[in-house]
Amino acid sequence: MSRRRVCVVTSGHLAGCPRMLKAADALVEAGYEVRVVSTISMAGSAAADRALHASRGWRWCTVSHERGRAPLGWARSGVRRRFAWTRARRAPERVSLDVAAAALGRVHEELIDAVLESPADLIYAGTVGALAAAAAAGRRAGIPHAVDFEDFHCAEHDPAGDGAVFNVLARRLMQDVAKDAAFVTAGSAAIAEACADQFGVEVTPIHNVFPLPKTQPTQCRSAASPLRLYWFSQTIGPGRGIEDAIGAAALLRRPVELALRGSVHPAYARALVQLAGACAPQLTLRLLEIASPDQMVDSCRAHDIGICAEQGHPPNRALNLPNKATTYILAGLPVVLTDIPGHRPLARDLGEGAIVFAPGDVAALADGLQRLLDSSGAFARAGEAAWHAAVSRWHWEHPDERDALLRLVDAVAA
Q1: Distances (CA, A) of 148 to 10, 85, 324, 381
Q2: pLDDT of residue 219
Q3: Does residue 322 register a pLDDT over 70?
Q4: Could you tell me if 287 and 309 are in contact, meaning their C-beta atoms sit under 8 angstroms apart?
């Protein structure tokens, strides 16, 4: 009997889409024949993608619109998207779904063609630019498609100007791809509930969690050393709680290091340096390069506390549980969390391993950090609580995470 074939699709780079990467890996391990379709838009990320693929057991197909190496694809896709966006901006509620898909997915048609190049029994897609392509390919080929809403895409942007247009188009596409999907997954319980309410479909939460590391974390913090705070994402930018961390550092009575990992616009980097210099002279700010998804847990180990301080706006930010929060605890780091719906399930399980504060309340954050510093054994207990939460619930191998996805796929395959 031949193996069932699954095509996993993302409109981004592999290195920037750990959810689809984990799904592909898990399906290969479960015995499926897996083909991954992704895009290439930046040379540096393409090299990271190749390094990831080198150690994997699935086939890989790329759609390139990198300006330097695929200038024709870059120009053609750019013109097409600008045309679609211009039409959509005039009446986002009334344009066709094809126009909406082209406005949100620069290489929408190319992704469809890439998916259909090889037979599959199921197409599973994540990232907003791949959802409509997967559904279209599945409908053309007469095979089932499934979709992953890592974010509540219809509320990813501020509801004004082009942000409002994006939200309207995303809502229409999410509704369309979900209506006949074999199954729908979401990046958090809060996003799953919002999608179920909005689109009237059953949604399974598959959290942004990662495999348990081979090495158990060890407590190696020196009381005399600066407090080492850590934050990472694909992009270092405003509205993500970095300013809260700097403000809290200004109130602490000791040296602090804040390491930020991700790509950053030079103007924003300068603004952060100026803010830290003005209000927190005892703070050392460090900007780190993006790391491979396979290295993210180890990259946390040199720090004391992980920062996940989403501000709750746009609305998607209130529902999302970012992968940074669940990565920190795999390295045994206590976590700073804002009190928003997407964070609350993890915060409850972390107990002593979490410092929870309202977005913008830097005094409360500073108090929580100071309590950890002042109380004998508090750091060790917080780290142990974080690791316990990771081992007992918040990891990829948990039955409600990887196995939940495999059960969904198995049901379609059967």
Answers
A1: 10, 24, 19, 36
A2: 73
A3: yes
A4: no
Confidence class for position 218, pLDDT limits 50, 70, 90: confident
Nearest residue to 329 (alpha-carbon basis) of 244, 161, 209: 209
Per 3-state DSSP, the chain is made up of helix, strand and coil in percentages (nearest 5) of 50, 15, 35
Residue ranges of domains in the chain: 5-209+397-413, 227-392
pTM for the predicted model, two decimal places: 0.95
Per-residue pLDDT of 360-376, as tens digits, reads 999 999 999 999 999 88
Residue 44, number of CB atoms within 10 A of its CB = 12
Do 5-209+397-413 and 227-392 agree at the fold level? yes
Q: Is the pLDDT of residue 1 over 60?
A: no
Q: Which residues contact 15 (CB under 8 A, 6 or more apart)?
A: 45, 48, 49, 52, 290, 292, 293
SS3 319: helix
CATH number of the domain located at residue range(s) 227-392 in this protein: 3.40.50.2000
- Alpha carbon 242 to chain centroid, angstroms: 17
CATH of 5-209+397-413, one of 3.40.50.2000, 3.40.640.10, 3.40.50.300, 3.30.200.100: 3.40.50.2000
Report the alpha-carbon distance of residue 407 to residue 386 in Å, rounded. Answer: 28
**At which residue do the structure tokens 């920037």 appear?**
16
pLDDT digit string, tens, across residues 254-313: 999 999 999 999 999 999 999 999 999 999 999 999 988 889 999 999 999 999 999 999
